[in-house]
Amino acid sequence: MLHHVEVNVSNLAESEAFWGWLLRRLGYTPYQRWEQGFSFRHGHTYLVFVQTGERFLVPPYHRGRVGLNHLAFYARSKEQVDELTLELKERGRSLLYPDRHPYAGGPGHYAVFFEDPDRIKVEVVASSVTGELEGSKS
After folding, report:
1. Cα 88 from chain centre
2. End-to-end distance of the chain based on CA atoms, in angstroms?
């Protein structure tokens, strides 16, 4: 089981507005807050976001380099994916792979793909949570 993930961000306030909105919609709750960071928790797992020091801001993040490619989250349903898609557009966020939305991940993979303020790719996928989790136990 994953304990936590820590993500360095270039603008803490902008990231907190974006991630706070998204994570609350996905069932996460605020967990910790300090001058240089914040975290959200879901069950025993939490996500931490920390302000990157000035000297480490260049070069900026790119998912094609070594390191994190993207974060993927479960949605409760296809309807929640659709709701988030509309809300993302209302918030001025562009979808990734709009020509293949909502099946950009392949047939049967109903998801929305977008980027956070630092261009970290985020995926929210509706799937048979029970089936996937039970299938992974063997």
Report:
1. 12
2. 15
Task: Note the pLDDT tens digit of each residue in 61-92.
Answer: 999 999 999 999 999 999 999 999 999 999 99
Segment holding 76, helix H or strand E: none
Q: What does pLDDT average to over the chain?
A: 92
Kindly state the DSSP code that residue 5 receives in the 8-state scheme.
E
**Residue 18 β-bridge partners:** none
Residue 80: closest CA among 30, 22, 119: 22
Dihedral, CA atoms, 31, 131, 63, 54, nearest 10 degrees? 10
Bridge partners (DSSP) of residue 89 are none
- How far is the C-alpha of 117 from the C-alpha of 23, rounded, in Å? 14
Instruction: Report yes or no: 64 and 121 within 8 Å, Cβ to Cβ.
Output: no
Are 116 and 7 within 8 A, CB to CB?
no
**Given this model, what pLDDT does residue 41 score?**
98
Q: Give yes or no for a contact between 113 and 98, defined as CB atoms under 8 angstroms apart.
A: no
The pair of structure tokens assigned to 101 is: 């939305």
The token pair that represents 42 in the structure block: 């879901």
Rounded to the nearest angstrom, the gap between the alpha carbon of residue 80 and the centroid of all alpha carbons in its chain is 14
